[in-house]
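Board notes, transcribed. Complex of a protein with calcium ion.
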Amino acid sequence: MKNCSRRTFLKLAGAATVAMMAGCNSLKKRSSKPNLVLIFCDDLGYGDLGCYGSTVHKTPNLDRMAREGMKFTDFYVTCGVCTPSRASLMTGCYPRRVDMHVNARPEGSIGRQVLFPRAKKGLNPSEITIAEILKDQGYATACIGKWHLGDQPEFLPTEQGFDTFFGIPYSNDMNRDFCPLPLMRDTKVIEAPVDQDTLTRRYTQETIEFIKSHADNSFFVYLPHAMTHNPLHASESFRGTSENGIYGDAVQEIDWSTGEILATLRQLGIADNTLVVFTSDNGAASRWGGSNLPLSGWKGGTMEGSMREPCLMWWPGTIPANSVCTELASTMDILPTMARLSGGKVPDDRIIDGHDIFDLMTDANAKTPYKAFYYYQKEQLMAVRSGPWKLHLALDKQYKSVHHPGYKEGRPQKLVNLVSDLKEQHDLSEQYPDIVSKLQKLAERARTDLGDLGRPGMNQRPAAIVENPIVQLKN
Ligand SMILES: [Ca+2]
């Protein structure tokens, strides 16, 4: 009897130990902070993925990511070109807020909308980036890819919250005689000009290695691809594989890359503790083979095709599978959302424009936190959206284009309903004067807050200017 009792006791004790261990494990799992992976393509259009309607690109991995996660239909960037769009992603603010809409070229001209090699300007180190918030929460942080928020030493990713940087400091078409396109590791150039055919593959390898070496801790990988920005490149094994030339090959290699990253997370058993976000910095450009269909407009403008992007979010067990979010969200929301998930805080000593959208990611009935969304081009307020309505504002004059400094003639206002008129063709301003007036009031609020052409905003913060930039990239 005693023996039996003892055996029973041992058995029970053993079971209790197992239960306790299981309890510890699940507690550990629940309380550990989620890993965060942010994949940011360059100039990839709304219509470039199979799950967004592309018939010329095969994207089985991204299509599977959409089936296993959430697809956003109304996900915006804050500007149709690289630098301002990335400034928003990193800070959670409109580019106007952080003064990253207008660049300063080495010679001082402000004709362009993005930073050029040796620019005197960069994202002010006093801004608080996503990486800085996550680093404070104990995350290992890596930037693997294109930075484009300043190439001077004080602006590089390693000064903005990233433990490591492997990538190019600006766009892949900025390959100049005086400065061949550099591949950098942290603050050092390791190859120039970089062999661009290899970039997507090497970024993927670096990402997988970083994930593997930090699988036991919380990590944040920011992976801003060089593709599909012109000049287009793909590695040998992807060349000629698509029905859409080199552009399609590059898209398909990005699809492969994403599949490899998700497979790594599954193999390591950390998929259910990792949020992966996949999106793009602006719409496809008109000339290189991309598609923004069914939207109108191209990169560089304020039509939907320029500023609305494909966006997939994947977190098995947390984000419902095969779900679609049609509410308005933006890249500015990534910082507040990731801050919350990490247990960190959104900075409260400054205005942050983005919102925590965890509810949108997990609750089909959640509504957008935006009362209004603003479309700026450079420092000019072009349009405002509220609900389904978008008002293209009446302008006395407007910027010519991304590549041509100067102004062209103005335009009359145009009110469109984005639900019934995705191509923004039919002006309804005469039928809905009350809506026009409401949107004009919202626009005026933005002008007071953030400014407009020739009108300073009240709540802008300065970018940093370097008077005598060090040309540290020239080896
Ligand atoms: Ca871009």
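The mean pLDDT is 91. The pocket of calcium ion is lined by residues 42-43, 82, 229, 281-282 (CB under 6 Å).
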